[in-house]
Amino acid sequence: MGKIYLVPTPIGNLKDITLRALEVLENCDLVAAEDTRQSLKLLNHFNIKKPLVSYHKYNEGTKAEELIRKAQEGYNIAVVSDAGSPGISDPGEVIVKRCIEENVDFEVLPGATAIITALVYSGLDTTKFLFRGFLPRENKERIPVIDEVKNSKETLVFYEAPHRLIVTLTFLREHLGNRRAVVARELTKLHEEIIRGTLEEIINHYETLEPRGEYVLLIEGKTLEEIKAEQEAVWKDLTIGEHIERYMEEGYNKKEAIKKVAKDRGLPKSEVYKHTIL
Questions:
Q1: How far is residue 88's CA from residue 96's CA, in Å, rounded to a whole number?
Q2: Which family does it belong to (predicted)?
């Protein structure tokens, strides 16, 4: 029985390849590559000669079965994407699932990924973040996606191509508000650039400068102040009694509802209790 290795490759600077990744590439029998032309450049740079097969999102289902069979026959196979870690917005997830189902040994190597590099660069909250890859192109598909995350307190992370950058930034501003944001471009490459500001400021920047290269977009999560303001907007026109009733309609008992109303309004529980109407 052979083994399948998921091998991260540099996202720009070839010096970011790890010694372990080079060892696997040198010792494997076969390299399954998202783009064989790109991977050939990488292998040639490090003077590694290996057979290459195509493994991309359009053939991932059928190709995964072939690779599983080869591993079962004793081949050691390295799976690589154009840049970064296989399985993260690149082919890799399917073959991991098939390895688990078929009890084929596999190993995931750590290495370069644009998400973490951009997140640390951003200056936004790194203790919690939500990565959603590329947003769908059509509004009817991406509005539900953004609706799922718009109230998240986590830093939001997306990928985007240059020709869709302004459209996506405008969409995010319309649906998330003018939040703080960061755009990381061409990470680890010669023209690496980090732009920080509000979404509006970043849109204005790129309206006078043609977007080029690969982008990571990072958007500040909803702040506690925003959440509190939205919660207040829900009950500010309610009487205290109606406020209590609203919580009880949501499933809280009377005691719990009184406690929550007192906290919302900054009042003593005894004062809120006087307004109970049930």
A1: 12
A2: Belongs to the methyltransferase superfamily. RsmI family.
And the tokens for 58? 């359009």
Show me where the domains of the chain are located: 4-108, 114-221, 225-275
Considering only CA atoms, which of 35, 16, 25, 36 is closest in space to residue 78?
25
Q: What pTM was estimated for this model as a whole?
A: 0.80
Which two structure tokens, joined as six digits, stand for 232?
């207040």
Q: Which helix (H) or strand (E) holds 231?
A: helix 224-235
CATH tag, 114-221: 3.30.950.10
Q: Which is it for the CA torsion 124, 129, 131, 137, positive or negative?
A: negative
Q: What is the CA radius of gyration of the chain?
A: 25
Architecture per CATH, 4-108: 3-Layer(aba) Sandwich (3.40)
- CA 271 – CA 258 distance, rounded (Å): 10
CA distance 62 to 77: 16
Which tokens go with 251?
Answer: 């499933």
What tokens were used for 239? 């009487």
Strand order of the β-sheet with 52-54 is 52-54, 30-33, 77-80, 4-6, 106-108
Q: How many CB atoms lie within 10 A of CB 242?
A: 13
- Determine the pLDDT at residue 234: 64
- Which residue ranges of the chain lie beneath pLDDT 50? 278
From residue 18, give the alpha-carbon distance in Å to each of 90, 109, 111, 181: 19, 9, 7, 31
**Angle CA 188–37–61, to nearest 5:** 100
As given in the structure block, the two tokens for residue 221 are: 């999560």
Cα(192)–Cα(118) distance, integer angstroms: 11
The pLDDT assigned to 235 comes to 66
